[in-house]
Amino acid sequence: MIRKAILDDNGRDGDSGLLSPSEAIRALNLEKHLKNAVGFKRWLCALGLGQFREVFDRRTWNEKDLLELQMDDLKHMGKPAVGARRKLIWAIHHLNQQLV
Fold first, then answer.
1. Quick one: average pLDDT of 8-36?
2. Are residues 38 and 30 in contact, defined by beta-carbon separation less than 8 angstroms?
3. What count of other Cβ atoms lies within 10 Å of the Cβ of residue 74?
4. With a threshold of 0.70, does the pTM exceed it?
5. Of 7-16, 41-50, 56-65, where does mean pLDDT reach its minimum?
6. What are the sequence ranges of the domains in the chain?
7. Lowest-confidence region among 5-9, 21-25, 69-73
8. Which interval of the chain is the signal sequence (predicted)?
9. Which CATH fold topology does 2-97 show?
10. H or E segment to which residue 2 belongs
11. What are phi and psi of 87, to 5 degrees?
């Protein structure tokens, strides 16, 4: 198992969580792509999904949380627009599928 740090666009350390080897690879892949995009919040804006920034500002998210994010989770967080939720879930999945 690998310990992975929390995502934070401000460079602050957050809590850590244990990941399985496959989760760690997926999380590292996601982290790499988000780093290339200069952070998660800028990546959201680049996708035209800036309206989700407030949702993700409410708490600290780690890569595993993002990889496990579901449409219903976003709906419960106050984002009822299906198209935007679908686009975000697809984008996270797509980043995760790209090779490191």
1. 67
2. no
3. 20
4. no
5. 7-16
6. 2-97
7. 5-9
8. none
9. DNA polymerase; domain 1 (1.10.150)
10. strand 2-5
11. -65, -40
Sign of CA dihedral 7, 28, 33, 88: negative
Give the distance from CA 4 to its chain's centroid: 14
Q: Is 4 strand, coil or helix?
A: strand
| Position 87 confidence tier, pLDDT thresholds 50, 70, 90 | very high
Rounded to whole angstroms, the Cα distance separating 13 from 32 reads 17
User: What sign for the dihedral angle of Cα 2, 68, 32, 97?
Assistant: positive
End-to-end alpha carbon distance in the chain: 19
Q: Which residue has the tokens 């800036």?
A: 50
| Rg (the chain; Cα; Å) | 13
The first and second tokens of residue 90, run together, are: 């697809």
The strand pairing partners of 19, in sequence order, are 2
Classify residue 39 by its DSSP letter.
S
